[in-house]
Amino acid sequence: MPEINVDFNRPVIVGNEFEYMRQAVENGHISGDGPFTKKCHTFFEKELGVQKALLTTSCTHALEMSAILLDIQPGDEVIIPDFTFVSTVNAFVLRGANQRRSPWIRK
Fold it and tell me: At what angle do helices 35-48 and 17-27 cross, to 10 degrees?
């Protein structure tokens, strides 16, 4: 495959993106859980060999769902990177997980 440079916060068109956007607008369904979402579900279920795959609207939602599925309880410890978005921490702290300052960060 040819190398593709993906610039930060700039859309990259490499194929049929405009055609798919046109189809979504024509179908009147430009939000989630439409025909393209269902195609993604089917693709991931087949490729991963899983019974059910679900898309989330954001990584924040995926982390929150993970915290719920892991049954995070007060006192549980979750290790996350120091340099990350606050939503990464919130998904677990809101369910009572312990937070500790990294030993590499100076006061």
Answer: 130
